[in-house]
Amino acid sequence: MLSRWNKIRQTIILAGIALCVAVLCPAVTVELNDEESEKQLKKTVQELVAFGDRNVGAEGNKAVATYLQKRLSEFGLEVALQGGELQNVVGLLKGTNAAPREVLIVGAHYDSAKKSPGATDNGAGVAIVLEQARLLSRLSFAYDIKFAFWNGEELGGKGSKAYVKEAVEKKESIALYLNYDSVGFDSGKCLLDLMHNSMSEKIAKRVVEINEQYKLGYTLTQNTKKCFSDHRPFWDAGFCALMFHCSDHGPAHTPKDTADQVSYPYAWKNAKLGLILLSQWVSPNK
Length: 286
Prior knowledge:
With 286 residues, the protein is an alpha/beta fold. The chain has one domain (33-280): Zn peptidases (Aminopeptidase, 3-Layer(aba) Sandwich). It has helices at 34-50, 59-74, 119-136, 158-169, 201-213, 231-236, 264-280, and strands at 10-15, 18-24, 27-33, 78-82, 88-93, 103-109, 144-150, 174-180, 191-195, 219-222, 241-246. Strands 4-5-7-6-8-11-9-10 form an eight-stranded mixed β-sheet, sandwiched between helices. α3 packs across α7 (264-280). The protein is globular.
C-alpha cells in the first residue's frame, strides 16, 4: 500500500496549530496555518451566502460562477467553463510531465437548494476546495490537479454528469476524484462519514490512517450515509472516487443553513485530510 504514495517524495510535519507540507519535486515548502485557513474558509462561505439563492437559474447562481472563475484565476490556474449552460467551473493546476497525464480532481457543487442560503450545503464544500487550490497552487506536481465546481447537484448531479460524460468521450485518465458535500456542520462529536465503493475502499482506509497519524481528531465512519452527490457519476463511469460528508445533515436544505452554522475548525480539518491525501497520492495503477 505505501508504495503507491511514494512517487512524489514529501514530508508532512504536524506541530501545534501549523501543518507544514514540503514537497521535494522540486523542493517547495508551504506552511499551512490553521487560523489563516479557517479565516479564508469563513470569508468564502460568507461571500457565497451573500449572493442569495444559488439554485440553478437564479441570478445568484450565475454570479457565483463568475466569482469562482475569478478566485481560481487569482491562484494562477487555467480556468475553463464546462457543461454548456450548466457552467461547471474547472481550474487546472498543470503538471510538469509533457506526456499525457493522469488527473486528480477535487470537487464540490456550488448550487444550493431553493430558499436555502446553502452555507453547510454546500458553501463549506466550495470553500474547502478553493482553500486547497490556493495552497496547492504554490507547489509543482508531475501530474495535473483539477479543482472543479459543479452546478446542478441539487437537480440530480447534472453538472458532474456532464463532466464525466465528456471525460469518458475524451478518454481522460482520472486517477482519483474527491468530493466535498455537506462538510461544514459539526453536531459537536466531530463525526465524518467516508462514502466509498469497492474501488475507493483503500483510499478510505488511507484517510483513516492519515486522521490517526496526524491526530486530526475526527471520528470517522464509513458508508453510514447513502446520499446522492457528485461522486456517483464518477463511480458509475468506473472512476475511483471518495465522498467526504457530515454524519449529521444539520440545517441543510432549510432557510436556517446560514454561515454561522458552519464549524470552520471542523471544515479546515476536512480540508487538511484531503491536502495530505493529495500530497501523497500516486495512481494505484503505477
